[in-house]
Amino acid sequence: MASDNIHFVTGRLAEPALRHLLPELSKKVGFDYSIQVMPITVAALMTPNWIAARIKIPHQATKIIVPGHCNGDLSPLKEKTDLPIEQGPKDLRRLAEHFGQTADRSDYGNWDIEIIAEINHAPRLSIEQIVRTANHLKKDGATLIDVGCEPNSTWNSVGQCVAALQSEGHRCSIDSLNPLEIAPAVEAGAELVLSVNSSNRQHAAQWNCEVVIIPDNIRDIHSMEDTMELLDQQNVPFRIDPILEPIGLGFTQSLERYMQARRRWPHVEMMMGIGNITELTDVDSAGINVLLLAICQELKIRSILTTQVINWARTSVKECDLARRLVHYAVNQSIPPKHLTDQLVLLRDEKLFQFGAEQIEELASQIKDNNYRIISEADVIHLLGSRQHFHDADPFLVFDQLMASAPTNVDPSHAFYLGYEMCKAMTAMQLGKQYTQDEALDWGFLTQPETDRHRLKKKRTDRMKPAQPKSDP
Q1: How far is the C-alpha of 324 from the C-alpha of 109, rounded, in Å?
Q2: Which residues have C-beta within 8 Å of that of residue 171, sequence separation ≥ 6?
Q3: Do residues 316 and 140 make contact, with C-beta atoms less than 8 angstroms apart?
Q4: Three-class SS of residue 12?
Q5: Number of domains into which the chain is organized
Q6: What is the pLDDT of residue 134?
Q7: Closest by CA position to 320, among listed 55, 123, 116
């Protein structure tokens, strides 16, 4: 017999989804339940005072759960009952997680792949710009800041740059083949040199730091062996990078060389420079970064070099930080990286919750206040008002329908608000995202929570103030 009997408080809009979720969830968790649908369409408009005046608690209830958007002091409710009162999740889709219905992920978030974030063309920037950029990259997850130099020139201020980064607490690497740049950089504190081959290996022992060995012939991993043997004899720590080539210029064969290198040198540390793919492919970088980090995780490549120069890759460091945690968990748990995090699901949402035409019509018939509700569903935008239902795929036509009804409750600020919300609804509809009125679209880690600044809360006439929730007659 279930130990808990939970009384759920909700509104009309959320009722269908709640009734759909609870039968299976209650069996999994082990509780009985009752549902009280309050006489209000949007549950987020409830307050503890308002609920306290209308709640009817069944005698068998052992706990009460109110909507997550129910803000304010819960004491008015607590005065009505001795039962424990909880706020549910703000997103009803997270109700299962509220009850702990997720896999044991106590070690989720661990990682073992370093992110080396390159500041490209550093000599073209001021020291202040470089430090500012490095602070941003570190905040997004960079392990080392790589100072990217330019070929066929010598940057005389590289030591000053590395010293400035060191003084700000950054670990640094230097990206150059030029010994005249490398020497002052490592003297100032750079701990890794990218890159070393036969052209500059004779200097490596003097630098007293780790280096990255690259092939003399990009298509032949064996062209690294002489450099590897020399530096091994000189006790110079190193990792190797067989070089990832762009799509169209040998991408698959270069991946094969990483696998060959791992088989040939199973215990040698490796690095993969992934910018040749994220920067040189006409596609958003997040998915690419996950796949490349997964390859690195499986091949035990413990460092990656990335950049975020082109606009579609402008958040690559943060993407790699999230991706390394995702693939670390998946590989170590031997499970697909699915249903673990939504932070990298950016363009579309994992799942859409829909009411259906019949339920939308029913909602339209129940609204009696002056507020408008917007729903985006099945390629149609619905605007619901007091016994009004305007709908079309084109938000401009929806607004035309509204204006044709000669509304008395739409002033310029309200019109702007409706336009803003319908624009979000149309974006969600086009991309396959969940739209919820007055809430930000879910862009994964890029989501910017909406504030109250765009709500209709200021400079309203009495006529424009939303009607207070009240019981149906």
Answers
A1: 8
A2: 143, 144, 145, 191
A3: no
A4: coil
A5: 3
A6: 97
A7: 116
Identity of residue 45: L
In a domain, 346, yes or no: no
Q: Is 389 exposed, middle or buried (0-12, 13-18, 19+ CB in 10 A)?
A: middle
159 contacts 186 by C-beta, under 8 angstroms: no
Q: Please, what is the average pLDDT of the chain?
A: 90
Question: Where a domain ends, among 44, 70, 98?
Answer: 98
Beta-carbon count within 10 A of 427 CB? 13
User: pLDDT, tens digit, for every residue of 146-192?
Assistant: 999 999 899 999 999 999 999 999 999 999 999 999 999 999 999 99
As a whole number of angstroms, the distance between CA 287 and CA 46 comes to 40
For residues 285 and 92, give the distance between their C-alpha atoms in angstroms, rounded to a whole number.
30
pTM of this structure: 0.79
Comparing CA positions, the residue from 297, 280, 296, 290 lying closest to residue 331 is 297
Integer Rg of the chain from CA: 29
Whole domain around residue 415: which residue ranges?
A: 357-464
Residues 6+ positions from 331 with CB-CB distance below 8 Å:
294, 297, 298
368 falls in which pLDDT band (50, 70, 90)? Answer: confident
85, two tokens: 């009162």
pLDDT per residue as tens digits for the range 32-70: 999 999 988 777 778 898 999 999 999 999 999 999 888
Residue 344 lies in a domain: no
Whether residue 38 is found in the same domain as residue 187: no
Q: Are 91 and 168 in a shared domain?
A: no
DSSP secondary structure, 65-91, as one string: EE-TT--S--HHHHTT-SS-EEE--SS
Do residues 64 and 57 touch, judged by C-beta distance below 8 A? yes
Q: Look at residue 338 and tell me if it is in a domain.
A: no
CATH of the domain at 61: 3.40.50
Pair (141, 242) in one structural domain = yes
pLDDT in tens, 180-231: 999 999 999 999 999 999 999 999 999 999 999 999 999 999 999 999 999 9
| Helix segments in 30-172, DSSP class H | 48-52, 75-78, 95-98, 127-139, 158-167
Helix (H) or strand (E) holding 4: strand 4-10
How far from each other are the two terminal CA atoms of the chain, in whole angstroms?
A: 39
Q: Which helix (H) or strand (E) is 7 found in, with range?
A: strand 4-10
Q: Do 70 and 59 touch, CB atoms closer than 8 A?
A: no
Whether 311 and 386 share a structural domain: no
Which of 34, 67, 98 is where one domain is finished? 98
What's the one-letter identity of residue 446?
A: L
316 and 370 belong to one structural domain: no
Residue 118 lies in a domain: yes
Q: How far does CA 169 lie from the centroid of its chain? A: 27
Judge contact between 414 and 431, C-beta under 8 A.
Answer: no
